[in-house]
TrEMBL record:
Record's protein name: procollagen-proline 4-dioxygenase
Gene3D superfamilies noted in UniProt: 6.10.140.1460, q2cbj1_9rhob like domain, Tetratricopeptide repeat domain
GO CC annotations, alphabetized: endoplasmic reticulum lumen
Signal peptide residues on this chain, from the entry's feature table: 1-18
InterPro entries xref list: Oxoglu/Fe-dep_dioxygenase_dom, P4H_N, P4HA-like, Pro_4_hyd_alph, Pro_4_hyd_alph_FE2OG_OXY, TPR-like_helical_dom_sf, TPR_rpt
Length: 549
């Protein structure tokens, strides 16, 4: 998993990812819009084909490819196609490998446009989008313990380990239809991506399922035919498995794969040398088979706790704690007739509450629409204030000022009524609206900035004392907010809002507010953050009587 290889945003100082400001893999909404455009385009092409005497063969092939990959009998939910990780991967793969000239010709043929602009090469998924889509599948399979064979058939089935060590299929979490499938060419590519990212254990899993898929193809004899009819070489996959296990110092386990490859190509000197070296290394190890455990890099704070909480957020589909209390909050006159519905999740250090029905469907839709034009790749900030893009945060961000529209201004005042704090600039920041990408996540982090980071943020008028996080969409699976240090899971409740303290009343930061956004399994996750600052709130939030308050 990619995030295992990167330091947390508070620690990283030098690693910088692609400078691309947005992409089809970093915001699901872009895939939704692209597929809607493509569906309209294909409808126009079909109409043109019925009226015209002749149509270019590549245009016909494009329509056939769309129908074979997108349309499913009895299932017309286009949004679900791109909100499902396997469906989204297939779409990115297909369009990243489609000749842009075909789409340009089709657009000119039918007069269909993408938004207000002509289709351009830059408006199609790229190889980088495909790589990040593969990383998303690796991440999701790893964190949510998905059954590999079910995943290749487009079904998400979670595995669990029993007390005796037996792994069983614990929970099926997807619909019966549609069944988006991955073939051997997909799984070996994903394995290669995992290998290149030095995620060798994950690479082994994807190469093994590749061999499984190759064996399942009809009339393919593994002992006689080193390659199947698609051109994917079995020998190559066997060597990849041997090489990956060698990276894990699993020389005894690598030997059978090297020997199988040698049996198919007995004259291959490269394979012979690999067999000899594996045998030598296995002997040096004293024929001891090392346990293939997950290798935790320790680069992400509370990584194991974070991943376990994300896993259980989907497995249980509920918070782990039952010690909750709910109240109607009428602390201000504006809340008398319409009180805030407050669910206390953690009483103090830090104070965490979930508010229900804070925003309406219409308001949430307007916030999403306004933010779409502003979306860019979400950055992270290092301990020393350096801003960069990283795979530890897969999403896009747009900022909406309070005076953008009356709806945004009204929403900002509503946050003020609920929190009892001043939400006008310079006492609060603008709304940060975020749409997560394919398998989108944000690893454990804190929202407050330390002094070394504030130096680089000269336009920030104060320190963050409170986070108010609005959930603007339904998330079918995944996407929970978790607090790994206090073992708390908060599901993404549509139209709800999560509030927690970033700073104690004493002025000290609240390190237990460290939180993370779990990877999105199915859905398009939209949130809006409102950060309230200390400046201008000194009398609304006075110091406590003890340093810990």
């Amino acid at each position: 998993m990619r995030v295992l290889l990167l330091l947390h945003c508070a620690l990283l100082t030098t690693v910088v990812c692609a400078s691309k400001q947005h992409g089809f893999s970093t915001a699901v909404v872009r895939l939704e819009n692209l597929l809607l455009f493509e569906s309209n385009l294909v409808d126009k092409i079909r109409q043109h084909m019925s009226d015209a005497d002749s149509v270019r063969e590549d245009i016909k092939r494009y329509v056939d490819d769309f129908e074979a990959n997108i349309l499913h009998p009895g299932f017309d939910d286009l949004a679900y196609h791109v909100q499902h990780p396997v469906g989204a991967y297939r779409l990115v793969k297909r369009l990243s490998q489609t000749d842009p000239g075909v789409l340009t010709h089709a657009r000119l043929l039918t007069g269909v446009v993408y938004g207000d602009a002509v289709i351009k090469t830059t408006e199609l998924p790229t190889e980088e989008d495909l790589r990040m889509s593969a990383l998303a599948l690796i991440r999701l399979q790893d964190i949510y313990h998905l059954d590999m064979r079910s995943l290749t058939q487009g079904q998400l089935v979670m595995l669990a380990r029993q007390s005796d060590g037996t792994v069983v299929k614990q929970k099926r979490i997807t619909r019966e239809e549609p069944a988006f499938s991955l073939d051997a060419e997909d799984t070996v590519y994903i394995g290669d991506i995992a290998y290149n990212e030095e995620e060798y254990l994950n690479a082994v899993l994807w190469y093994l399922v590749t061999l499984d898929l190759l064996r399942g193809r009809e009339q393919v004899d593994i002992t006689d035919d080193p390659a199947d009819d698609s051109g994917l070489g079995r020998v190559d996959v066997l060597i990849k498995l041997g090489d990956t296990l060698t990276k894990l110092r699993q020389h005894q386990r690598a030997l059978p794969f090297y020997r199988d490859a040698l049996r198919m190509g007995p004259e291959n000197q490269v394979i012979k040398s690999k067999v000899v070296e594996a045998e030598r290394q296995a002997t040096l190890q004293g024929n001891v088979t090392l346990k293939m455990a997950k290798l935790l890099k320790g680069s992400i704070p509370y990584q194991e706790d974070y991943e376990n909480l994300c896993y259980h957020s989907v497995l249980r589909n509920q918070p782990p704690s039952s010690r909750l209390s709910c109240t109607y909050d009428r602390t201000r006159p504006e809340l008398y007739l319409s009180p805030a519905r407050r669910e206390v999740l953690h009483e103090k250090n830090p104070e965490i509450a979930l508010y229900h029905d804070v925003i309406s469907d219409e308001e949430a839709a307007m916030v999403r629409a306004l933010a779409f034009e502003e979306l860019e790749r979400s950055p992270v900030v290092s301990k020393h204030g350096k801003v960069f893009h990283s795979d530890v945060r897969v999403s896009e961000t747009g900022w909406l000022h309070d005076n953008t529209t009356d709806v945004i201004s009204k929403l900002s005042r509503r946050v003020g009524y609920i929190t009892g704090l001043n939400t006008e600039y310079p006492s609060a920041e603008s709304f940060q609206v975020v749409n997560y990408g394919l398998g989108g996540l944000y690893v454990p982090h804190v929202d407050y900035f330390e002094e070394t980071q504030l130096v680089k943020h000269v336009n920030r008028p104060g320190k963050r004392i409170l986070t108010f996080l609005l959930y603007l969409s339904e998330v079918e699976l995944g996407g929970a907010t978790v607090f790994p240090q206090i073992n708390l899971i908060v599901p993404a409740v549509k139209n709800g809002a999560l509030m927690f303290r970033d700073m104690k009343r004493s002025g000290e930061f609240e390190p237990l507010s460290m939180h993370a956004g779990c990877p999105v399994l199915i859905g398009s996750k939209w949130i809006a953050n409102k950060w309230i600052l200390d400046r201008g709130n000194e009398f609304k939030r006075p110091c406590g009587l003890t340093p810990d308050e």
